[in-house]
Predict the structure of Phage holin.
Amino acid sequence: MLMDKMTIARTAALALALINQLLASFGYSPLPFEEQQVEIAVSSTLSAAAAVWAWWKNNSISKEAQEADDILKKKKEAKRNAIKG
């Protein structure tokens, strides 16, 4: 049975990270980036991930939106209970 594409991608990323760490431990700099560039890239990635996560989640701020969320939650719970019997 073949591995799925995501398993192959994760395994390849892990292998590259381990090779990079091994080379760095021997004093080689396999990635042509300066420390400040890496810091900016990591910071930007974390900021972008937080922005996408905050945007994706349903952030009900108004009282009406919170009440609507409660109604939806109760309806979903009732539906699950009806299915269970």
About this structure: Residues 62 and 68 are 10 Å apart (CA to CA). DSSP finds three helices and no strands in the chain. The longest helix spans residues 35-56. The chain has a mean pLDDT of 84.
